[in-house]
């Protein structure tokens, strides 16, 4: 499930640190607002993940991104590295047109975005959409009562990995990494950048994610890791 880019969006340049200069983001007040707008203006948006991604992504890579957000990371790798392609999966259908408009505004032609999540088997899953679109998730937060939910497609993880054959993984899926990462066939990856959410998955969940990568032959890469953003790679 995808949507057409918003051709009438007004693009504004936002200069960012870590060689992300020149990326453009359509001025959509429903998405570029509040904290997101402030971080973009102050050159602070996803700084740790940006640094990590630019350290590990190389020319010719096939990148899989889980949790596309505003299309920042997919645009970053497509414009700052001569990658073969980037394939993004985003659960929130309200973000799909915006992501596509970001790609269009930046002349990105080797990126795809799919409105779906990955899982053990195909089907549907509840996804809770919040006023803060980037805070939407598959989890009911503590204190929430009947949050607005929609059904999102679930695609088989192993089949998608087989079809795309990525060698780099970027993942920021609000705690769902604890269940998804161990289900993935990680053996074909050269490197990965994962934003962990220990506040939700706890120490056991963090260990579970680390164990999955280590069993696939990837080691913790300290130079690319900062706080909750951790890198793994198979070469030294």
UniProtKB/TrEMBL annotation:
The keyword DNA damage does not apply. Pfam families: TRM5-TYW2_MTfase. Gene3D superfamilies: Vaccinia Virus protein VP39. This is Methyltransferase, FkbM family. Keywords: Methyltransferase, S-adenosyl-L-methionine, Transferase. The lineage of its organism: Bacteria, Pseudomonadati, Pseudomonadota, Alphaproteobacteria, Rhodobacterales. Residues 47-111 form the TRM5/TYW2-like methyltransferase domain. GO terms for molecular function: methyltransferase activity. NCBIfam families: fkbM_fam. One of its GO terms (biological process) is methylation.
